[in-house]
Write a structure and sequence with these properties.
It is a single chain. The chain has helices at 3-23, 28-44, 49-55, 62-73, 79-90, 170-182, 201-209, 233-238, 298-309, 312-323, 335-357, 362-368, 382-394; strands at 98-108, 119-122, 133-145, 152-160, 190-194, 213-217, 223-226, 229-232, 244-250, 253-266, 269-280, 287-291. Among the domains are: 3-77 and 335-403; 216-296, no CATH class. It is α+β, with helices and mostly antiparallel strands and 423 residues long. Strands 1, 2, 3, 4, 5, 6, 9, 10, 11 and 12 form a 10-stranded mixed sheet that branches. It has a two-stranded antiparallel ribbon with strand order 7-8. Helix 7 (201-209) links the parallel strand 5 and strand 6. Helices cover 39% and strands 22% of the residues. The longest helix is centred in the last third of the chain and has 23 residues, at 335-357. The radius of gyration is 25 Å and the shape is globular.
């Protein structure tokens, strides 16, 4: 058998197995739909339905395939599928402390007029211009880190608008995602890492009540309380020196971070917190982190620095979705269909993360022979593994029709031989 054919078969079997776990006991129709979407997204590197439909190579007309896909996207999002996806993702994370990265991004649709509930959002693609606003949506995202390769695994992606019915706030959307994931965690098994936007007492209280850990970058002007005394975090940072040297690699260069920690309290938060103050090389500006996890040893401090430094992976996750898979280029117009499309995209990315993390498997090693890369070792392997899969699927002319379950139905037409005579 041709190697590309065998490789394509193994890839599609892996895809089907993942989707079967996520769909669970849902109808076979959902399995077929997500097979179509995942295959189409990876082959076309797009989330435009017409391009996905074209990549399926079906005998049916493109118009009918488009209508079928769109009809499935219009349904109300299935909460059971979302929970099943969390269960699958957790199985590929560390057994002890699981790290989750939280952040928001934007989806800009400046020329869109018919999209449901569009609002004015800040366009982050213009660095330094905090007042650049245009039409679009906010996207709240939580990703995990895979156990071996530390690849971002999608757990929660929600596109939202303040014009939705019963909409409360961005923080409420984040809280829903955190609570949904925490339902599947043991006490103090997860650590939720966020930037300064999550330096919020209500957020910290919620994480504490869920019996989980938080690690957040603190605002420099937050007050720290030591008994009856209090001092601003930035002023406190000036008085301490790093006791722990933490080596870290940034842009292929080895750097050093000097860090120290201490216990204190915060206003309106009755529990103890641990503050980590760190300086990189000779940079005079401190990086101040806060967590509810007790830091008792030097290794604990080192791990907090590494946990927070991994936060850049969610930024790369956003870039990958937008640049390689065209996340901002969707054409569906209702928020339900947009979120269902986002969920299908997350399944495709989760498949990439699983293949990469199982680096000893035949599939990963075989795909690496088709990759187009300059560097031998990279931190985020999504780009090269997507390129390999795109090449392999491009050789397949049959789509996924041979991998869809066949409906086992008996003929419904009455037969004269099955009719009993009644006296």
């Amino acid at each position: 058998m041709n190697e590309s054919i065998l490789l394509c078969h193994n890839l599609l079997e892996k895809m089907k197995k993942l989707i079967s776990k996520i769909v669970g006991k849902s109808s076979g129709r959902q399995l077929k739909f997500y097979l179509d979407m995942t295959y189409g997204i990876l082959k076309s590197k797009s989330i435009v339905l017409n391009e996905i439909a074209h990549s399926l190579n079906e005998d049916t007309s493109l118009k009918k395939v488009n209508e079928r896909l769109y009809k499935n996207l219009m349904r109300i999002p299935d909460i059971n599928e979302r929970h099943n996806m969390i269960k699958v993702g957790l199985s590929y994370m560390r057994e002890k402390e699981k790290v989750f990265l939280i952040d928001d991004t934007d989806v800009m649709k400046p020329y869109g007029k018919a999209f449901e509930g569009m609002a004015k959002v800040r366009d982050a693609s213009y660095p330094g211009e905090s007042t650049k606003y245009d039409h679009g949506y906010k996207v709240t995202t939580i990703t995990g880190l895979s156990s071996k390769k530390k690849q971002p695994i999608p757990f929660y992606d929600h596109v939202h608008s303040p014009f939705e019915l019963d909409y409360l706030s961005v923080n409420n959307i984040t809280n829903i995602g955190v609570r949904r994931i925490s339902e599947h965690l043991k006490p103090y098994e997860g650590m939720f890492v966020g930037d300064r936007g999550y330096d919020d007492i209500k957020f910290m209280k919620m994480i504490h009540e869920l019996n989980q850990y938080f690690l957040v970058r603190m605002h420099n002007n937050r007050w720290l309380i030591f008994g009856k005394d209090r001092i601003k975090a930035f002023d406190k940072a000036k008085t301490v020196k790093g006791k722990v040297i933490v080596p870290i690699t940034i842009y292929a260069k080895e750097r050093f971070i000097k860090a120290t920690s201490f216990k204190c309290k915060l206003r309106d938060y009755k529990y103890d917190v641990w503050v980590v103050i760190s300086y990189m090389d000779n940079n005079p500006d401190p990086l101040i982190l806060i967590t509810n996890k007790p830091l008792l040893t030097k290794d604990d401090i080192t791990q907090m620095v590494y946990r927070y430094s991994s936060r850049w992976r969610i930024e790369e996750y956003f870039r990958f979705k937008k640049s390689e898979l065209g996340f901002e280029n969707f054409r569906v117009k209702t928020l339900d269909s947009i979120n269902n499309l986002t969920f299908a995209l997350d399944i495709a990315i989760m498949l990439l993360a699983i293949i990469i993390d199982e680096d000893s498997e035949y599939l990963y090693k075989s795909l690496k022979r088709y990759e187009k890369s300059i560097k031998e070792n990279v931190s985020i392997e999504f780009y090269r593994i997507l390129s390999s899969i795109n090449t392999i699927l491009g050789m397949n002319k049959n789509g996924v029709k041979n991998y869809k379950p066949i409906r086992d139905t008996k003929p419904k037409q009455l037969s004269l031989f099955k009719i009993k005579d009644f006296d």
